[in-house]
Structures are given as structure tokens and as C-alpha cells.
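Hi P.,

Sorry for the delay on this. The queue was packed all week, but I finally got your sequence through. Input first:
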Amino acid sequence: MSSPPSQHDAFDQAHSTAPLKRAMSTRHLVMLSLGGAIGTGLFLGSGEVIAQTGPIGAIIAYILGGLIAYMVMLCLGELAVHMPESGSFGSYANQFIGPATGYMITWLYWLTWTATLGTEFTAAALLMQEWFPQVSVWLWTIIFAAIVFILNISSTRLFAESEFWLSLVKVITVICFIILGLLAIFGFIPFQGYESAPLFSNLTTQGWFPQGIFPIFATMLIVNFAFSGTELIGVAAGETEDPAKNVPKAINAAIWRLLIFFVGTIIVISALLPYQDAGLNANHSISSSPFVTVFSFIGIPHAEDIIRFVIITALLSAANSGLYAASRMMYSLSMKKQLPRLFSRLSQSGTPIIAIIVTMFGALPGLLSEQFAPETIFKNLLGIAAFTMVVVWMSICLSQFNFRRRWYKAGHTNAELKFVAPLFPIVPILGFIFCFITGISMATDKDMLPGFFGCLIFIAACYISYAVFYKPKKNQ
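Then the structure:
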């Protein structure tokens, strides 16, 4: 006996938003995901994590962060293959948690990347000012915003290609960093301050956990933010050729590459530098990242300039991905009639032009950095972006958990799914719990408390606005 059609709607229809063009391949998806993830979290945040937790603590933190990201991506993969949509998380939360939560998650993910745009443009502008101190930070912010805006409004295909090449620059840099670092560790090339190969003695010189166990958990927000961007695969599923084939391949490829890149980077930095020196220096100069120190000590000429260029490229790549993701959230809200139809208007090349323009205003906080302390703005925007990302990840795990339970209840089996997240229900439950703990850790950092409470207020405002404007009336 078959179930009523209404029970099957959530399962047996692929909800793809037709007007957006399916222009992305597996290589575009993988690089989009890597591009979103390899940015400030790796080039800048990694040193801070090592300085706070010690070498072994940092390695554990990044492995744990990678496993959390992998669990979340497995849940997302199952949902995205079955229902490839542009604006995926909000739609999944809408169907499998509740309409108000779906509305909130869509807006929260928009806020995640909009806040990130501010961090990326601010950081890139500060780096350019180190080269050109006479040029204002706000001017560089406008220039970078214009570049990213043009790449996004051109076409989905051109955006994907630009992101592929921007991401390739930093991927090659990270690979070179790990290879040269390992050569120095094993004594094949000289390293300043060492007569013989340092090997891995630095990892435990000050003990296994010189700062104790707690900092490992306290830094998990930074670590999880470093892996954020992997979920862009889900956003792009609605604009991907053959999602059933390309999305699972991209998820596996992206996660394992990120884990190798991140953990490999941490091992190299920790083995070659005393952990106390891994963080940014007293002047908080962004170019004093551990990448610069290691390349300089190996003897790479103009190491600081090279890494500054790479980090600027990385920041623009992350901003490029962020504007793409945030604009698709607005597009999705408009398609659900929760924003004016204007926001789902497409340009001739098939991009949501109004949504992109409005999202660009998220870069405005970067313009304030010349008048106010740029590091303070940077840290608060980073905290907001990290916390909102963790909440979105929690919603992905809960959506997949509820989806699978309904799937079984409707009489379906795993064999009918084109992609199955393994070890149900362990994977979504553990993913949710770890993300929850990570989010709460933000409250332990006094500097991030304003951002933490700001995010909670934003979430409450989303639920209230949904209840006031969009909640279906009982007589309907």
C-alpha cells in the first residue's frame, strides 16, 4: 500500500531551481570547497592555534576539526544528492526541522559569508597597505570588492573557472610549504638556527600539552572556521552537472585534501618553530604568519612578499566563494517568496544580480577599519562568521537525521538512495554534538562575547520576523 502523495513530496522530487544553470564539474566543486576553506584559518589562524595549544594539541585540534567537517559533509552529501538545490541548507532545514528554522538558517548562512566578506577584504587591504603605506585601507577594500563583484556577476561558469585558478595558487603554495618543510625537517635542505636536522623534537620539547588540555577545545572555533567552506559543495549542487555523480566525489576529494593540507602544515610549523613563536608577532602584522617565518628560515628570497601575495589571493578566493554562497541564499529566500521577487531576478548570464549587489554591502565593515582598530573588527567578524557556520553545520546534521528517519518511516530503504551517509544515526548525532560544543566555546573568549550575543540576537530576530510575517495562518 503506497503512502499518500504528500508524504512522498519531500523524497521523490528533485527540487532544482531551474533558472540557475548547471555549469560546474567535479574539479570546480572541489576547488570551490578548497577555495572557501584555505584562507585566513590556515595562513593566519594555524599559528595562533599552535601558540595557544602547543604542537600536539594543535595537531589533535585539526584532526578533530577535520573529522567534524567530514561527518557534516557526509550528512550534506546525502541530502544534496537527493535534493540538489541552490540554497540547500535552508531548504533542508525547512523540510526536515521546520519552516521557521529553515528561514533562520538561510539568513544565518547569508550572515556567515557576509561577515566573512568583511574579514577577507579587511585582511587583504591591510596586507596591501604594508606594500603601499600611503594608500588608504578603504581604497584597497573597494578595489578588491569590485574584482570579486565582477567575477560573480559575469556567469556561473566564469565564476567557477576564476575560483579554480585562485584556489590553485594557494593549494600549490601549501603543497610547496609542506614539501620544503619536510625536506628541512629531515635535513635535506638547511634551516636557520639548526646545525643538524630538527626532525620532530620540537613537537614535545615543552611536554605533550604545555598549556593543558582545555586550550584544545577553546580553539576549536578557530579550527572549525578553518574547515568552513567545505559545505559550499551543497550550495553549488543546484548548479552542478550530474549532482549524483559529482557531489559525492567532490566531498571525499575536498575533505581528505584539506585534512592532509591542514595537519601537514601544522606538523611542519610545529617541528620547525618553537610553539611560542608560531602566533602573530606583537605588532599583529598579518604577514608575520608562520608561513613567512618558515620560508625565510629555509632561505627563500622575498619570502614575505611571496606569502603576502599568496594570502591576498587566498583572501580574494574566499571572498569570491562567500559572495557566491550568500547571494544564492538570498535567491533561495526570494524563490520561497520570503524576500521580494526582485532578489531572484537573473542577469542575462544567469546570475542573481540583485542578490549579489545587496550582499556586497556586507563588505562595508571593512571600510571602517581605517577609523577604528582593524584587528578588533577583524576578530569580531571572524567570531561571528565562525559561530554562525557552526550553527549551520548543526542544522545539516539534524536535517539529515530527520530526513533518514522519515525515509524509513515512508517505507524506503538505503538501497534507494544514490548516496548514503554511513553509520546512521551515529554520524549526524556526533556531528551535531561536536558542533554544539564548539559553538559554546565562543562564550569562553571575552573578546568574542559581543559577537556571540550579537549572533544569538540575530537568530532570535529571524524567528520573530518569520512568526510575524511568514507563519501560515491557522485558517489557511
